[in-house]
Structure formats: structure tokens, C-alpha cells
């Protein structure tokens, strides 16, 4: 790359895009990288404030920003993603499906700490729709050493930083506990909420079973749904620490392994997650507290996309939800485009 006076640039090849800003009208490249400057271009370039230009001089030890951007894009891009055109060292990725965005944050940190390049992204574990922007990448200088790009590629070891897990259209059984509902003294309000939330992610509802407060009846109802082929069982009610709230005991008595009883999320602190192992599959069994019935967003909204995408959840991950785990119950809800549940 060589700097020359604009008046002397006719016949030379530009090594980077030249952006022209017209306030209130446009901001775009007036001249693209690779453009051969003509005599007619010189007054336009001078009017853009370009008294000197950088022209391309081939150097086998350096990548042009756009060449390096292509490499950076390939470190990010995975299945179910579309990419934009390269422009001034920048490339954006968008989703082509409904699914769950996963990010290898360790690799992301490595690249963003390497210098001369950057990746800005959504949060990991965010539900995405077709056309949603996932990330933007950019090479900072006009040229970058090839050795630096090769070192970053080696650190990534062939892995991709981003992936999207499609939802699995799971079969879902619903068990609602409580003698007051079972005996018909009050109308069940859990069922419609859980149906709507599961179906939003492609779930097929096998049915809903009402049980009284006896834990053995709840355990039997859970196991019956599993025998019917349920990929997930949602158990609502009886999740507090009151003496007659026996749902956690009922879930344990099925033989399911409890990941966590309790989560640092409000609403939803009394959430329970367990996995029942059958035929090599881990079937989620979730105990849902009363807030899921009446609060617009709860811990259930954070875990459901992951369960529907067959993305196993650990206690350590649930523990991290405390950072951002407080829903502000905004008058107009913008979830998932807010800070709620972005800790993991």
C-alpha cells in the first residue's frame, strides 16, 4: 500500500472503499476497492476531503481488509446462516431458520483480544428467527498481517464460533397438580399457558393430566406420559416449600435425576429441572412454579428454547442466570431483546 497525492492518482488502483457522506441522504462507498481512478474522479475525491489516496501495492505478507474479512467470516459461519457482502472489511451473518443461537464465547474472546479484528454478536442462548442478525465482523486496519490471521485460525482449531440449533418439535406431556384443580373447585389456568409456550417452539401436546396432592399420583402421571413417548414433561403446581407442596418429591420418585431445585431468577426461583433417562435419551422433566401461570416472562421462558433444541442444561449454567435474572416486568415487554436472562 502506497500513499500518493489525489491529483496524481489517475490510473492507479484504490486499495480500499472510499465512503461519501451526504447528510440526510446517504452514507455509502462512492468508489470501491479495485476502482481505477480516472481524471474525472479527482474533483469528486477532492470534494470528499481526500487530498491523499492509498493505492494498492501487492505484498505477499499482508491481507487486504476484505480478504481478511472473508477468513474471519468463515471462522464464524455455520449451518443455517446467510452472509452479507464484504464491505470495508465488514461482513454480517443472519439466521435462515428458527432456532437457538449458540456461541463459543471462549473463541469469541480469543479473536476479540487478538487485535486488528473484531466480532460483535447477540448473546448466546438467544432464540432467533429467519432473517435475524447474528453478528457483525470487521477487520480494523486496511491491511493485516497474514501471520496474524493464520494464528487465529490455528487457535480456533477448525471450530466455528457460532451455531444455530433448530427446534426439535418435541412431544410434550403436561401434569398439573393440586387437589383444588383436580376436584374442580377452581379452573386450571396452567394448561393454556403451557400449551401456548410449547407450541410456539413447535411442541406437540400429548395431553394434560390433573392430579391431586399425593406425590405417587403425580409420579405415575409423569411416567405415563414418558411411556406414551413424551420427549418432555412439564409439571405445574406444588413447587413451593409449603408442607403440602409435594411436586419436587414426585419428580424425584420417578427416578429422574434432579439438576437443580431453585434458580437465581425472578420470577421463577422455585423452578426445578430434572432429566429422566430412557433408551439412551435424557427426557427433561420440569417443575414449574405458580409464576409461570400469571407472569408474562419467567425462568421458563429462558429454559424452554434450550429444552426444545435438545441443548442440555447444567446446574452451573442455571447458577449464572443471576446476572440479568431479574425481570423488570416492563409495561411493554421486549423479551428476548432485553437484558433478562442473558447471564449464561
TrEMBL record:
Enzyme type, top EC level: transferase
Keyword Lipid metabolism annotated: no
The protein's Enzyme Commission number: 2.10.1.1
Cofactor(s) needed: Mg(2+)
Alphabetically ordered keywords of this record: Magnesium, Metal-binding, Molybdenum, Molybdenum cofactor biosynthesis, Transferase
Catalysis performed (reactions): adenylyl-molybdopterin + molybdate = Mo-molybdopterin + AMP + H(+)
GO annotations of cellular component type: cytosol
Transferase as UniProt keyword: yes
One biological process term in Gene Ontology: Mo-molybdopterin cofactor biosynthetic process
Pathway the protein contributes to: Cofactor biosynthesis; molybdopterin biosynthesis
InterPro entries hit by this protein: MoaB/Mog-like_dom_sf, MoaB/Mog_dom, MoeA-like
Record GO terms (molecular function): metal ion binding; molybdopterin molybdotransferase activity
MoaB/Mog domain span: 173-309
Function description: Catalyzes the insertion of molybdate into adenylated molybdopterin with the concomitant release of AMP.
PANTHER family: MOLYBDOPTERIN BIOSYNTHESIS PROTEIN (PTHR10192), MOLYBDOPTERIN MOLYBDENUMTRANSFERASE (PTHR10192:SF28)
Family under the similarity heading: Belongs to the MoeA family.
Stated name of the protein: Molybdopterin molybdenumtransferase
Source organism (scientific name): Lacrimispora xylanisolvens
